[in-house]
Structure formats: structure tokens, C-alpha cells
């Protein structure tokens, strides 16, 4: 078995951030090239630590769905994925880690395609093409991907009057686009993975298209109205390059171009026994069981199990992902295990493979965590270990006191009103969590659960807990200054 794992950034506030990554995974899954195709994120579920519990394959190909070789791809991702380099052999698994998609040469044709689509019929010889990135001082490679593409298009004889790179936070600034561009027509392509806060809200303000940030992409019907007539020029603004459907091919190109060791180690990994019960069971707010009167499986909200005839029917397992994005009030659900899953639907699936995929969309990695707990291979990570490995803006999170940490966990994790997971981790290797309710405390190896219940487990503190620890550490610092 082989698995493809696509890594994205994700967001706790923007539902559109992870959409392109999932769409590219859906396309590659449709082609049947891998036994498993999954996504993991820095700021969404499943995390890069949890995803290895979800995947059952002994060989895993990891592709960062990022633009540059900067801070995330060189530091954050290898740290969170526990990688030794391009090739890692861990726990009997063979793991390949490729370059990010944004630096692959085939990105050039996507940029050209997007430029032509956004400004159809506009002569290239009378057009300035501007490729926009974020820009950062954290890593000098953060701008390299854009600079490389600018050079490839400029030197490739593609006919543009000029090709320029511009950035949000370092010179040349995209806000100066009208001074940078000399041609009467200007095409601006955001070199971002998703139409998130930067490409959809920040850059339009910097360009002068909008006076203030707009709503998120999924909450607007129209992306942009081209062209825009500003500063005596005609401006065309495109959606982020990472939303291009052909990005799925770029992901596969990165894998095909990866230099594998010869000979490669032989994987010895054996996945734990599958944890899907044969009969009807509950998992969080899901009611799952054999479909009545027909083959396959049926999933619905636990509160809808007695009124199946009135529910909206879905038959595609990927519908589970869409059903879990918003609650009944239309509010984004950044915590998938929050007890606010919307009602009114039923999902009929034909095979156990489809059932597993749907469960992983509703509750990412939860089934795998349960399987490893049953097999005795679950490896909980203490809060101190999680905080201790943080870098960048989170590196001081571990300076909070034990008393503050206990209170923080009780506040963020101690109520089922926020999250339905049961913790498996401790404060540190010696100290248990003392301020959370008994039913939320770490599940021991010999603790039993009802046979028709698959519990939702938490193997380490999530990004919300880490963020709260950072805020507490900042407050401590400010208090010490007074």
C-alpha cells in the first residue's frame, strides 16, 4: 500500500484556506493512483502528528502544498512530521518528503494559463504581469519561488511587456503596482495556495480595488469584477494560483521528480486491526450502522436517527467534509470535534472504504487514534513536550507555570461544550491533569468503553491550546515589565 499525504497551512478562522488542498486530493484520489490520499494541516485537523494514525500504508509520499522553500517547509513541517530529511524510515514506515509545489518548473504554465484566463484577448505585449507573494524576513527563500518564476517567464519569450515580482510586506511592494508597471494593462496573479485572507481581502485593498477587506470567498458570490480602471491603467486581478485545477498534476510531478534512494529500505509496518464495529455504533455526534433494507452503511446525526425519511440524502463520502464545515447557524467549525455538527442529512455509503473516508472527513484521524489505542500503539504527547517544541512566535509558550497550564487545559479542554475528545495526554511525564472533569481525563490502557461507542481521543494538545498558552506567556511577560 502507498499513501499520498498533501500538507497545507489551513486556518482557524477562514473556511476557504484548506479548500484547494482538499480539491487536489479529491482529484488524485479519483484517479486511483494511491491506496490512500489524505491531507493534514498546520492550523486545521488533522494535525501533522495525528495524520500518521489515520494512514494505514507502510509507504507515504508527502508533498507540501506551499509556495516556497521557506520557514514552514524547512523548519515547521519537518519538525511536526518528525522527518529526518527527504527520506525517513520510522516505525517500519518509509516516508518521502518532496519539495513544495510552488518551486516546481511546471508552475510556469499555470501562471501563464491564469494570466490569459483573467485577461482574455488582452495583448501580452501591452501587458505587465505582476506575480504577488507575501514576503517575510523569517527566511530568505520565501521570495525565491516568485523570483524564479519571474525570471522563467521574462526570459522564456512569452511576450509580456514586463514581468515583475511584488510583495505584501517587503519591497517591491504590491501597493506600488501602478508605479512598478509601465504597460497600460496590468495582470496581477497572487502566488498563494488558497484564496484566503491575503489574496481575497488584503491584496485587493493594497491594489486599491477595495477600500476595506471584504467577506471571505465562500461568503461572496463574485470573486472580482475585471477589469478595474485605476491610475490611468487597466488592472486585471486573478484568484490565487493554488486554486488552479492543474495543481493536482504539479503535486504528482513533484513526486515523479523525487530522487528515491537505491536501494530503499523495505517497510515492515503492519497497520492495527480496523476499528469499525460490524453493527450500529455512535462516534461523537455520528450515528453509524448498516443501511436498512439495502447494502452499505448509513451515517446521520445522532439526534436524527429516529427520523431518517426526512433527511437530505448524500451518497458521496466527500460530502462529509462539506457537511462538517458549518454548524446549523452557518458558523465555521474550526474544531471538528466540537459538539455542534449540523443536522438534517444522511449519508449512504456502499463500502467500508467509503465509510472510513467519510468518518475521517467528519472526525479527522479519530478512527485511526482509536485503532492504535486498541492495539496499544498510541503514543500520547504531554503538554510540556508539545509546548517545548514550538518555535517562532510560539517559542515562549512553554514558559507558563504548571498552575497556569492546569487552569488553561481545564478552560480549553475540560468541557464537552467545546470539544468532544477525551484526552490521553498529561501535563508532563509525571504530572496528571488535575482540574478537568473525570470523564475528560486521560483514557488509560485498561479503561473500557461501551461496545457500541467509538470514543474521540486527543493524543496531544491542539493548535488552540498552544495559542492559548502563547497568550498566557505574553501576559506573564507584560506583567513582569510593570
From TrEMBL:
<dbReference type="GO" id="GO:0046872">
    <property type="term" value="F:metal ion binding"/>
</dbReference>
<feature type="domain" description="DR2241 4Fe-4S iron-sulfur cluster binding">
    <location>
        <begin position="376"/>
        <end position="471"/>
    </location>
</feature>
<dbReference type="Pfam" id="PF01903">
    <property type="entry name" value="CbiX"/>
</dbReference>
<keyword id="KW-0479">Metal-binding</keyword>
<dbReference type="InterPro" id="IPR041181">
    <property type="entry name" value="DR2241_middle"/>
</dbReference>
<dbReference type="Pfam" id="PF18069">
    <property type="entry name" value="DR2241"/>
</dbReference>
<keyword id="KW-0456">Lyase</keyword>
<protein>
    <recommendedName>
        <fullName>Cobalamin biosynthesis protein CbiX</fullName>
    </recommendedName>
</protein>
<dbReference type="GO" id="GO:0016829">
    <property type="term" value="F:lyase activity"/>
</dbReference>
<dbReference type="InterPro" id="IPR041346">
    <property type="entry name" value="DR2241_Fer4"/>
</dbReference>
<feature type="domain" description="DR2241 stabilising">
    <location>
        <begin position="282"/>
        <end position="370"/>
    </location>
</feature>
<dbReference type="InterPro" id="IPR002762">
    <property type="entry name" value="CbiX-like"/>
</dbReference>
<dbReference type="Pfam" id="PF18009">
    <property type="entry name" value="Fer4_23"/>
</dbReference>
<dbReference type="InterPro" id="IPR050963">
    <property type="entry name" value="Sirohydro_Cobaltochel/CbiX"/>
</dbReference>
